[in-house]
Each structure stands twice: as C-alpha cells, then as structure tokens.
Input
Amino acid sequence: MKRFVVLLALCLVFTSLTVNAAEYKPEYRLSTVLGPAFPWGRAAERWANLVRENTEGRINIKVYPGTSLVGGDQTKEFTAIRQGVIDMAVGSSINWSPQVKQLNLFSLPFLMPDEKAFDALTTGPVAADIFAILDKQGVVPLAIGENGFRELSNSKVNVTSPADLKGLKIRVVGSPIFIDGFTALGANPTQMSWADAQPALATKAVDGQENPLSVFNAAKLHTVEQKYLTLWGYMADPLFYVVSKKVWEEWSEADRAIVAEAAKQTAAENLIDARKGITPEDDSLLKEIEKNGVTVTRLTDEQRKPFQKATRPVFDKWAEVVGKDLVKKAEDAIAAS
Ligand code: X2X
Output
C-alpha cells in the first residue's frame, strides 16, 4: 500500500511537471495584414520583440503578415483566433466586423471628424464597451492602435464631389458597410483582400481604393496608376491588440502583465508612427506622395457635405446594426472631445 502511495505521488509530480512544461508553446503565432514596411507590421514586430525580451524568451512570438495563417483572407482572421489557429493578432476593426458587428461603429461614414474624435472612442467608455464585446467573443483585448484615416485614391479623376465617383470601380475591404457606402455615392464597389487589391489596381481591373496615407505611400500605390488622392477622412480603422483566451489562460499572471504592458506601449508608439507626416505641423509624407506625381486634394468642409449627405442613410442603417446606444455613446464622446 505504502509503495502504491509513493508511486502515485511520483506519478502526480511527474504529470504536473510535464503539464507545466507543455503549457507554453515554443512559438506563438501573431497575425497581421500588413508587414514591417507599414506602421501596422512594425507595431506587431515591436510587440513581439518587447514580449520576448521582457519574458526572457518564455513567450516567443512570430509575426505572420499578409494574414497568411488564413490564406490571406482578412475576413477570416477573427474566427481563426477564436478557433485557435491564430494565437495573437494586431487586427483592424474592418476585418473583424463581419463577425463582431459592433466594430462597424468605426466604419460609420463621417462619424469621426478627426484624430481627436478617434482618440475619444479608443480611450473612453466606448473602448471599454468594445473590449467587453471582444472579451465575450473569446479574445482578450489589450490595447488599441491605429491603421489610419482612410483616404480615397483612383486612376481616373480628381474626386471632389460624389458625381466624380459615378461608375468608378473601387476596391473595398471586407465589411458590407463599405459596399453600401460606395454604392450610395454612385461608385461601383467590389470587395477583395489586400493581396488581390494591388494586382487589380495594376491591371486596372479596378480604378481606385481607400487606405490610410501611410499605406498608400509604403505600398507605392502611385506605381499602380493611383494618380488622384482625395483627403476626405470618412473613417479610420483602429487596430486591436489581442490574445486568444485559451492562450492567455495558459500564461502566468506575471507574463500576462508583461504582454499587456508591451501591447499598451506598442499601441502608443503605433499611433505616432501611423500619423507621422500627415499633420499640419509635419506634412512630409503628403509632400512625398505629391512628389511622386499624385494630385492630392483635401476636401473643404463645404465639399465634404454632399458626401456626408449621400451616405447618411448608410450611417442610419448601420447604426441599427451596431446598436443605437453604442452609437449615441460614441457621438457624445466625440462631441466632448
Ligand atoms: O485591406 C486593407 O485595405 C487594409 C490593409 O487596410 C486592411 O486590412 C483593413
């Protein structure tokens, strides 16, 4: 009997040792759409490096850009995190909004007039609500960074009114709100992944696209016929720094704190990086784009109005999908910003 107890005790010790040893994976897979040529991809690398250093290698993160873990289909990224195919991500609200309908909040046309409004949503009670929603869906949100205000480019005309958009084929991202918005403006939107967008622009299968200026420049979109750029600031996509709940629960408290702290630090740096060169004080990025032969037009408030008017029904329709209370909370936060 005594020998049996000893054996049992040894077995228990051995099992607990092996379970502990198996708790941490040799590599954690972090998904992004854009690589290190862009603020988004740089942020992911930075987060991975900070975590590796500060956990003394216990948490070893590898970044997989191009949403390669889901064959490049950005709209499948969120589901893959929930299913355990992806351990961590720095992901855009747009790409996850097919699964998390409240994330369409950030895509409501002309909801956020400027960066201040963006910050009001990504730091206050709205962010808390969004975090609770993501948490309920099985991911642990840690910080919010930014892809940027999405500006419109095309190969054909200098767009200053909705009439200029008439019939233009515009590549849009994965959420149906974009199809609705561009249809309301008279354009001919077509949804495709970022990987497909660039060849589609190069071959003129589509005439235009919308993306932040940092993306336009780093992807050299002037080399794929994008000669006209309209700064209309109709929406900006936040980037969420998340860990799958299953992975999170495997980590020690101390390591979780390190990962969370590194996410916050990285997201703060990400905001600065994403906004560099496009402010009135420093417009070096805009100048660079113009030097590449692109006609850049910033809409006046007056010029923006017809775009706002044409997309208002889309705003109202999608405000119902997002949830009226959350939209109201967002509008109040913006008004106070
Ligand atoms: O596909 C895009 O346009 C991009 C890279 O901005 C996103 O993933 C939302």
